[in-house]
Amino acid sequence: VCSSDLTLSMQSMDDTVLTTIKRKNMEVSNLTEMLKVCEAEGVTTYTEMILGLPDETLDSWRAGHYKLLDNGQHGMIDIYLTMLLENSELNSQVDTYGIKTIEVFNYILGSDADLSVRERATIVTETNSLPFNELIDSYMFSWMLLVFHYLGYTQVFSRYLNHKYSISYQTYYDTLFNYIDRKSTRLNS
């Protein structure tokens, strides 16, 4: 992200999840106004979300993305998987939230990374509220939005239909996701 961009780290857009992880986002009205000003001034906004937090569900994850779109986030998103850090509170709540993990190497690399050093991270693959298959569906849904909306392939269409005909982003992207998800489409092969 360059210095003229604005990063908004939201983690989740779901109030239950935010309460569980003891975080609070800015008021939605402030977010909407900030996104409008940034778009008018040509400042790219960038939102970071964390997938696999306790109490997040497939439905709440998707609803969070729609909340971002409805409030004017059309710049860019990035999705990180929840990491268990050695001395974090979440690390002591593995049993409480049914957290399952996997160890990965070099999960977060900078452009000047020394690939001879293998950095280890513990990534959440499942929780009580987000089984592994739904975590994968959540990630694929985010990937679809990233590729089609944020990189611009469908953004013009979805925004036009939303503005002109009040077709919600949810209707538009649920339809697209379901189309992509069908085994018979070229996009899925």
Tell me the layout of helices and strands.
Blueprint: E1 6-11, H1 15-20, H2 28-41, E2 45-51, H3 58-70, E3 76-81, E4 100-105, E5 120-126, H4 132-150, H5 155-165, H6 169-181
Parallel strand pairs: 1-2, 2-3
Antiparallel strand pairs: 4-5
Helix pairs in contact: 3-4
What Rg, in angstroms, do the CA atoms define? 18 Å
* Overall shape: globular
Distance between the termini: 32 Å
Topology as H/E string? EHHEHEEEHHH
Question: In summary, what is this structure?
Answer:
The chain is of the alpha/beta class. It is built from six helices and five strands; from the N terminus they run βααβαβββααα.
Verbal overview:
40% of the residues lie in helices and 17% in strands. By secondary structure, the protein is α/β, with parallel strands linked by helices. The strands form two sheets. Strands 1-2-3 form a three-stranded parallel sheet. The protein has a two-stranded antiparallel sheet with strand order 4-5. The chain is globular, with a radius of gyration of 18 Å.
Which key phrases capture this entry?
189 residues, alpha/beta, three-stranded parallel sheet, two-stranded antiparallel sheet, globular
